[in-house]
Structures are given as C-alpha cells and as structure tokens.
From TrEMBL:
Record feature DNA-binding region, as residue ranges: 38-57
Transmembrane segments: none
Protein name stated in the entry: Transcriptional regulator
High-level lineage: Bacteria, Bacillati, Actinomycetota, Actinomycetes, Kitasatosporales
Residue span, HTH tetR-type domain: 15-75
Organism: Streptomyces sparsogenes DSM 40356
Signal peptide residue numbers: none
Amino acid sequence: MAEGGKPKRDTYRHGDLRNALIKAGLELAREGGPEAVVLRAATRHAGVVPNAAYRHFADRAALLHAVSQAAMAEAARTMEAEQAALPPADDPVAAARARFRAVGTGYLRFAQEQPGLFRAAFHVPGDMAHAAAETAAGAGGRTPFELLGAALDDLVETGLLPEDRRPGAEFLAWSAVHGLAVLLIDGPLRGLHPTQAQDAGRHVIDMIERGI
C-alpha cells in the first residue's frame, strides 16, 4: 500500500510509466547525483511496485543511462537559455562571439546550480554516442556538445576562427570548461565565493578564445 492507504499502481495509463520513472530518477539525481538513481527508489517516487520498472528498464544501468541523457538535455536547455538571454547585436561577429561564450557560461551555470544533475549527465558510457543522442537534446534539438559545435561553426563563418583550426576545437573547449566545472563542484575550487567562480569561468573562456 502507498502512503495514505492508496494502493500502488503497477502500470501507468497511456504508457507513461517509463517517463515517470525517468522523472523520478532525475529528482533522485538532483538530490544525490548518479549514485542515488536506483530502481527501487525510482519506483517508490513514481508510486508503483518495484517489479513494474523492469517492463521498461532491464536494470539500474539502463535507468541511469536514460536519466543521464535527460539530465544532459536539461544542461542543453540551460545553455540555450543563456544564449536566448543575450542582448540583440547588430554586429554578426560580436553576436557569434557572445553565443560562443554563452555556451560555456551556461554549462558552468548548470554545473553550479544543479551539481547532482551535472554529475548524472556525464555519468556516461565510454564513447561519444551518448553526447549526440536525441534524448540528450534541448528544446532546439541540440545536445550540449552540438550547441558547442554550432557556436564554433558560427565563429568560422564570421571569420573569428580560421577554418583550418576548426577541426577538434570542440574537444579543447569542452575539456577546459568541463575541467573547471568539476573543480568547482567536486574539487579544490568548490569553496570559492560565487563571484570568484564567475570570474574563473570568464577567464577560462577568455583563455579558450585566445587558444583557438
């Protein structure tokens, strides 16, 4: 029996149990990172018996994979929101530069505001397929990695980034920003004042701009 004397449901109408379990997993990850995402806890949050989860997820790893992609989609939406908040710019060069910087700023903001989801988002298999999955995309249909790639392409189109330096640039930019994000939430920089953390993010993005 569920709380309040109501029986737990072992299925969801309209086939939405899978999404309910992913949503429950996201809430678990939000509070405790990927380690908190377990099938029994997710079914309890969704209000179903534990065995119901196996109709949609073979094991914990399968649920965690789905939650990881959903968390990555949330990261993409944060990055999209950072770009959408940019003031209008008549200069296409300045606009491309601002969009590129917003990708990094949004990524860092997501890591600091949602550390549990950030950890879950990048609790991934050992290949790049996860980073390009449709289920990891934001509202605009792009994943965080694809948003970065698009921003770099804009830099090439506006002449800010030489075309011969474009190949692989996303890996360099991603590595630097992701490294700072991890240091800020799990490493020795986690005690920085928010203003100091923002300054660090700005300086790292400055460094990336100069480097590429």
